[in-house]
Write a structure and sequence with these properties.
alpha+beta, 8-stranded antiparallel β-sheet, 10 strands, Cathepsin B, Chain A
Length: 366
């Protein structure tokens, strides 16, 4: 049995097993991308041979792990137009400079989230019909049984690389979210879910996609981590449209997306005691007791047009047009809280994600 001081109980040997992945600079050197090996993806990790529909649960598990471990991200490229500065905490000048996280820890956290998400999906899927293996975000939160709260969501239609970053900017300007160091966006597009993390301390947006990529291409890669400065938001989403969601470039696919803001509502003690680097398998936790949260964030409107400056509105459309239905739908939750009824919409269901959908553009799913 390992003792706390025993080197064999340290997380270092576990992290030494992780690949040493070097970033590539893409989109005119504005986006840093870490392409992980194909065996680090939701459908192949741990020798798995069957497809995985757990991407939504994996994204939610990532939110908890990132907050528990207080991970901060930085890009490998800083825009030349920005003056160099020391990254300081928001609370005051006496705070310590922000310490960014080594990519090995990020990859290790990603691996844990994939393991836990796949296990949680397998457990929850036992009680669901075969045609209900894909989860809405409310369903996934229930299945994870973790202290996570969905603050708000919106349904977006239109060009992916134009409309989605527009609504991300709206949320970033929301006064309700200003206290948060990190804002987590769960994005569902073309039946696949990815996690976006806006890190205010490092002014970066991180993309974490757990799917297998390039199945029909000569080179197959696994999960992907990408990062860009917030000033390069549009560039990052153009990259995502090319690499992660190639369907967005095709007129044959309906351009509809769901963006949700989800926050971790655990305790300060949770975050202090969580170590970095364990690879324990998922254990179904007991229901979370009512405990004082780190920062209580209740469901509230976030995607409100007044937060967004006109200078950042989608090109070719007025600010008012960008907020017309069905881009942002005022919603009312149904009694069972699993579905919703967008006002003025014939589609009364939340978007489900997780299927191993294939596309005629390229197979970027598992």
């Amino acid at each position: 049995m390992n003792t706390p001081g025993d080197p064999s109980s340290s997380s270092t040997p576990q992290h030494s097993l992780l690949p040493n992945v070097q970033p590539t600079l893409e989109q005119n050197n504005r986006v840093s991308v870490w392409h992980l090996p194909s065996d680090i993806s939701q459908s192949r990790l741990g020798g798995r041979t069957s497809p995985s529909n757990a991407c939504t649960l994996i994204a939610l598990q990532l939110i908890e792990l990132i907050e528990r471990r207080n991970l901060h991200f930085a890009t490998t490229h800083t825009p030349l137009s920005l003056p160099p500065r020391v990254l300081r905490a928001h609370a005051g000048a006496e705070s310590q400079p922000t310490t960014t996280t080594c990519i090995r820890y990020v990859i290790g956290t990603f691996v844990e989230a994939i393991i836990d998400g796949n296990e949680a999906h397998a457990h929850a899927a036992k009680t669901r019909k075969p045609e209900e293996q894909n989860f809405t975000i409310p369903d996934a939160i229930k299945a994870m049984m973790r202290p996570l709260t969905e603050i708000d969501f919106c349904m977006v239609t239109g060009p992916f690389a134009v409309q989605v970053p527009h609504f991300i900017r709206i949320a970033l300007r929301s006064p309700s979210l200003l206290p948060l160091d990190r804002i987590h966006f769960v994005l569902i597009a073309f039946e696949r879910t990815v996690l976006l993390v806006a890190d205010r301390r490092t002014n970066s947006l991180i993309v974490l996609d757990s799917h297998l990529h390039g199945v029909t291409c000569a080179v197959t890669t696994g999960a992907v981590v990408a990062a860009a400065h917030l000033s390069d938001l549009s560039t990052l989403f153009h990259w995502m449209g090319d690499y992660i969601f190639p369907e967005s470039r095709s007129p044959n696919f309906v351009q509809e997306f769901e963006i949700s803001t989800v926050t971790y509502a655990g305790t300060s003690r949770d975050c202090v005691e969580e170590s970095r680097g364990g690879f324990s398998s998922f254990t179904r936790p007991p229901p979370v007791p009512p405990v004082p949260p780190v920062l209580l964030m209740r469901p509230m409107p976030i995607f409100i047009s007044s937060w967004c400056d006109k200078e950042n509105e989608p090109p070719g459309s007025s600010h008012e047009q960008s907020m017309q239905q069905p881009l942002k739908k005022t919603i009312k939750r149904s009694a069972d809280s699993s579905d919703l009824a967008p006002l003025g919409s014939s589609n009364n269901k939340r978007v489900r994600s997780g299927s191993d959908a294939t596309t005629t553009v390229a197979d970027h799913s598992d």
